[in-house]
Amino acid sequence: MQVFKFGGSSVANANNIKKVAAIVSNAAKKDSIVVVVSALGGITDLLLQAGKEAANGHTVYQEQIREIEQRHFEAVRALMPVASQSALLSLVKKATNEIEEICNGIFLLREITPKNLDRLAAYGEWLSSQIIAAAFKQGDMQVLWKDAREFIFTNSDFTNAEVDLAITEKEIRKYFKENKSNVFVVPGFIGRDGNGVTTTLGRGGSDYTAALIAAAVDATSLQVWKDVNGMMTADPRMAPNAKVIEHISYSEAMELSHFGAKVLYPPTIQPVMSKNIPLYVKNTFAPEMPGTIVGGKSKELKTIREHIVSGISSVNNIALISLEGSGMIGIPGFSKRLFEALSQERINVVLITQSSSEHSICVAIDQRYLERARLVVDKAFADEILLKKVEPLKVETNLSIVALVGEQMKSLPGVSGRMFGAMGRNGINIRAIAQGSSEKNISTVIATDDVRKAINVLHEEFFETSYKQLNLFIMGLGNVGAKLMDQLKQQHAFLKQHLKLNVSVVGISNSRKMLFKEHGISLSGWKESLAAGEPASLSDFTNEIIKRNLRNSIFVDVTANQEVAKAYGKLLQKSISVVACNKIAAASPFTEYKKLKELAHVYNARFLFETNVGAALPVIGTLNDLRRSGDEIKSIQAVLSGTLNFVFNHYDGTRKFAEVVKQAQEEGYTEPDPRLDLSGVDVMRKILILARESGFELEMEDIVNHSFMPASCMKGSVEEFYKCMAAEEAHFSNLLDAARADNSQLKFVAELKDGKASVGLQHIKPGNDLYHLYGKDNVVLFYTARYPEQPLVIKGAGAGADVTASGVFADIMRAANE
Ligand SMILES: NC(=O)C1=CN([C@@H]2O[C@H](COP(=O)(O)OP(=O)(O)OC[C@H]3O[C@@H](n4cnc5c(N)ncnc54)[C@H](O)[C@@H]3O)[C@@H](O)[C@H]2O)C=CC1
Ligand SMILES: N[C@@H](CC=O)C(=O)O
């Protein structure tokens, strides 16, 4: 004999019931089947609402009862031939009349009791089972209908009654021994107490009815048919990549169902586990799918199992209550009194942690019972609170529990480390932790706002063999930003295939417009979409990043804007990594630069700015590697301006100096404001950043700038700057002539020596390491303790949108792989 249970959505209407009939008819060809059914989807809620509306004096309950009636009438008419409908229609009518009479009574009294609620709710399963049994009889099945109240006996704890297992098992066995049929149909969820009054087994209790029957008759299997393909590794509404769990042990299934996986009603597992009956979770709408097998032989489990963790579950509406005080240390009985107080109020304890110092006990409860808990606990410890041995109950709300479940976790060190590491890198603050010694479940209490992110982060960490999701927010879509978008588009498939990274650009902004798309902005049509976006606002953009709270979020600053640089701190504090080619933050006052680094460290985020010096050349990374390995930077000599190198390489007297500068700007080497390059400020920023990364606490004001520009050209607008350079052509040609006369080339050189930095134009002779530097190249010479005479040299293109974008891209990959 097998027991099949069909849930509310599986029997929501006639079409679905026909699918159920096909499944049962097929199975009944080989075995005798007990079918336990829920109420038609939504009917239990309607019944309870009708009762509550009546108690509140609202006549809307009458409409709700008509709706209940109509739903059942429709099912009867669609399932039964006209000639056989009348008996069933009058059964529905009789039942809805009774429901109405009960509600009329409640309406008059303006009072509803748990007993009445159970009486009302029971009509749902009773009616559905009658209709389904009649529908089955239309086919080739021999069918017996049986009211579960005749063999499920409970106490009188209405709405959540406790089953008397011994009598129930005996009565079920007796019935199925004495009655033979191909198919039995039984209403789930309902039972009766010692006085013969109807009770219910708690919401979802039909699963339990089926499990009780399966255990009592020693069924070969229990099949729970749902509208999902099985138990999932996580709630698919939260984690779109959740997968069906093929095979899971009873205790894992129990842990998962206790912690919010609504697929199985928690008490369901115990009866089948005690008899080692395999439980299948299957999909009524895709019966060909294998579903999930709960239970079975452990040997089989180990070979099938791919993952250390079986599933991730969560439960919302949690409050943490903490009892703290120095008076608790070393004195037995505090926890006993706390739990007794909670139990008196029938407050269920969901999770417990106690510090080894015994200074505090922290308990997670359903948030609905918070006020009751506060009152009862403060009352229980009133004397100690008065004597200041214990503090009044501390309370935190809007929390959730997210738990990893898996039997294999206990044999593997490092699972909790991976769990906390992944959550920490994503800025998820863990308020409390619990892990039982069985190590089947590691539970964390976190803010409810972080639940979606946490589930996805953990799913990625423990289940994603396919890919890791990366969410980018890019601000600044000018020369460099646009190239970055091109490169992301070009590499998208490669990253997914080879690095298992799915990169989505979720937000973009230039100074005019901004745009967000959670599942990724099209990398082909982004320009048009951005043009149609909403007006840009830095604060709205950054707030939106925080609000979206997506895992593996990276903010990419491709502007040259000071205000944008000021927003990094706010993002880092939310564990959102920052990748910047904007140099303003790293060249800001030392305290601010240091603070950003500290924030990144404290909040487990990355603050990366490799392109601040030498575009994509590995300058900062190399410097960091040298220092990390214990080397010491003695001095640096460098040509760090692609623009100035380009200008002095191309200025040969055949064209005006201003024209060559214009060409550098047009080719995308200059800063958005080219005066920053020509004045030497851009190079000052770069040597400042190198000095700081070398360990020196320098400020911009400490850097000596031997500017070669006429002071008059640095006043006014960019247009006036160009006009002034044209007018001062003689000044620039004199510089060139002097260098030629000295058999030298002009190079704008940055130096750091003995903690002091300077920048300025120099005559560089053939043979000098800085001499052979073409186009827009940069060169950096590091003299260190380990490179005392022959420097470590880094050389190559130091400006240009394409190379800079590739440097930004590389920083994004570094942040992603952290
Ligand atoms: N061009 C190069 O070779 C290199 C450039 N960089 C840095 O790259 C950055 C960008 O340079 P380019 O792309 O050439 O500049 P760009 O002027 O072409 O682009 C800047 C973009 O930032 C946007 N923007 C400015 N303020 C904004 C705000 N408040 N909110 C949103 N968007 C804003 C502008 O609308 C524009 O789309 C600069 O910081 C520069 O120092 C760094 C290394 C090399
Ligand atoms: N404007 C800069 C670009 C890179 O930082 C330069 O010319 O070097």
UniProtKB/TrEMBL annotation:
Q: What keywords were assigned to this record?
A: Amino-acid biosynthesis, ATP-binding, Kinase, Lysine biosynthesis, Metal-binding, Methionine biosynthesis, Multifunctional enzyme, NAD, NADP, Nucleotide-binding, Oxidoreductase, Sodium, Threonine biosynthesis, Transferase
Give any GO molecular function from the UniProt entry: metal ion binding
Known catalysed reaction(s)? L-homoserine + NAD(+) = L-aspartate 4-semialdehyde + NADH + H(+); L-homoserine + NADP(+) = L-aspartate 4-semialdehyde + NADPH + H(+); L-aspartate + ATP = 4-phospho-L-aspartate + ADP
Q: Which CDD domains match?
A: AAK_AK-HSDH-like (cd04243), ACT_AKi-HSDH-ThrA-like_1 (cd04921), ACT_AKi-HSDH-ThrA_2 (cd04922)
SUPFAM superfamilies documented for this protein: ACT-like, Carbamate kinase-like, Glyceraldehyde-3-phosphate dehydrogenase-like, C-terminal domain, NAD(P)-binding Rossmann-fold domains
What Gene Ontology terms for biological process does this UniProt record contain?
Answer: homoserine biosynthetic process; lysine biosynthetic process via diaminopimelate; methionine biosynthetic process; threonine biosynthetic process
Tell me the InterPro entries matching this sequence: AceGlu_kinase-like_sf, ACT-like_dom_sf, ACT_Aspartokinase, ACT_dom, AK-HD, Asp/Glu/Uridylate_kinase, Asp/hSer_DH_NAD-bd, Asp_kinase
Name the needed cofactors: a metal cation
UniProt xrefs under Pfam families: AA_kinase, ACT_9, Homoserine_dh, NAD_binding_3
| Pathway where it operates | Amino-acid biosynthesis; L-threonine biosynthesis; L-threonine from L-aspartate: step 3/5; Amino-acid biosynthesis; L-methionine biosynthesis via de novo pathway; L-homoserine from L-aspartate: step 3/3; Amino-acid biosynthesis; L-methionine biosynthesis via de novo pathway; L-homoserine from L-aspartate: step 1/3; Amino-acid biosynthesis; L-lysine biosynthesis via DAP pathway; (S)-tetrahydrodipicolinate from L-aspartate: step 1/4
Tell me where in this chain the ACT domain is found: 404-477
**Family note:** In the C-terminal section; belongs to the homoserine dehydrogenase family.
The protein's role, per its UniProt record: Bifunctional aspartate kinase and homoserine dehydrogenase that catalyzes the first and the third steps toward the synthesis of lysine, methionine and threonine from aspartate.
Record note on quaternary structure: Homotetramer.
Q: What is this protein called?
A: Bifunctional aspartate kinase/homoserine dehydrogenase I
Lineage, uppermost ranks: Bacteria, Pseudomonadati, Bacteroidota, Chitinophagia, Chitinophagales
